Amino acid sequence: MTDRTPPRLLGPAEVRSLASELDLRPTKQRGQNFVIDANTVRRIVRESGVGASDVVVEVGPGLGSLTLAILETGATVTAIEIDEVLAERLPRTIQEYAPDQADAFSLIRADALRVSSVPGPPPTALVANLPYNVSVPVLLHLMSLLPTLRHGLVMVQAEVADRLAAKPGSKVYGVPSVKAAWYADVRRAGAIGRNVFWPAPNVDSGLVYWSHREPPTTAVSREDVFAVVDAAFAQRRKALRGVLKPLAGSADAAEKALVAAGIDPLARGESLTIDDFVRITESLQKVPS
């Protein structure tokens, strides 16, 4: 590895040149904002903790700015790209800018929300500039699909970063916070300015770092727990006794289940941890309606 030439990274001129070659007009529908600053992609990779032993999944590599920075660490990269034009060009970009690392790169042409497997060695890390309109579903889908993931860093809209990293009791604690906590310990890892993107987005961006945690030990399914989470936050201002009534069969059954789980029936979802939701789900399945 030491005698390999490091990748060249993309700057503003290279990104615009590639975009011009492809007659590219970034679409809001796919959340396409390309990073044009080499220092930013290096910072993302540094904050991710990715090293040469990692097998990295990257979602939405676009023109390859972040991909090249990940390859710079010596890691193996599997990129998932839905855009046919971008997917067609990317392998050639890697060959041109990182010829000595090209054998460590592979591409899956697919929608990350719909992939059912990732070929090759089991992925250990997820690093991505996620499309902002589907960032949470994509993150949760890949965490579920790839249990070998140990850590990762994603760039998302600032408000989404706040929600993912929020703790119980926070005003922005909600469904993304709880569901992400099933898989990982999550924290905010900084902010990214708008001027490092082309085109510049009209929202601020945030970095979210996560490390794997073992899912709660329980006989109930994740799907059942997540159904309780969804119900608890569907009407944020209502007490759990009321919002869980449809799942329990009656308000009385909901109250019995909550009491059995050690939860105040008048509590609200935003005060509960993922483990609290697991206990509630277990109780709901035991208490007759």
Key structural traits:
2 domains, two-stranded antiparallel sheet, alpha/beta, elongated, 289 residues, Rossmann fold, Helicase, Ruva Protein, domain 3, seven-stranded mixed sheet, 17% strand
Name of the CATH class of the largest domain = Alpha Beta
Q: What is the name of the CATH topology of the largest domain?
A: Rossmann fold
- Flag low-confidence runs: none
* H and E string: HEHEHEHEEHEHHEEEHHHHH
Number of helices: 12
The radius of gyration computed from the alpha-carbon positions, rounded to a whole number of angstroms, is 21 Å
Number of strands: 9
CATH homology superfamily of the largest domain: Vaccinia Virus protein VP39
GO molecular function: 16S rRNA (adenine(1518)-N(6)/adenine(1519)-N(6))-dimethyltransferase activity; RNA binding
Function: Specifically dimethylates two adjacent adenosines (A1518 and A1519) in the loop of a conserved hairpin near the 3'-end of 16S rRNA in the 30S particle. May play a critical role in biogenesis of 30S subunits.
Catalytic activity: adenosine(1518)/adenosine(1519) in 16S rRNA + 4 S-adenosyl-L-methionine = N(6)-dimethyladenosine(1518)/N(6)-dimethyladenosine(1519) in 16S rRNA + 4 S-adenosyl-L-homocysteine + 4 H(+)
Protein name: Ribosomal RNA small subunit methyltransferase A
Element layout with pairings:
Layout (H helix, E strand, L loop, with lengths): L11 H10 L12 E2 L2 H11 L6 E5 L5 H7 L4 E6 L2 H14 L7 E5 L15 E5 L5 H11 L5 E7 H8 L9 H9 E9 L4 E2 L6 E8 L9 H13 L5 H4 L1 H4 L2 H10 L13 H13 L3
Parallel strand pairs: 2-3, 2-5, 3-4, 5-6
Antiparallel strand pairs: 1-8, 6-9, 7-9
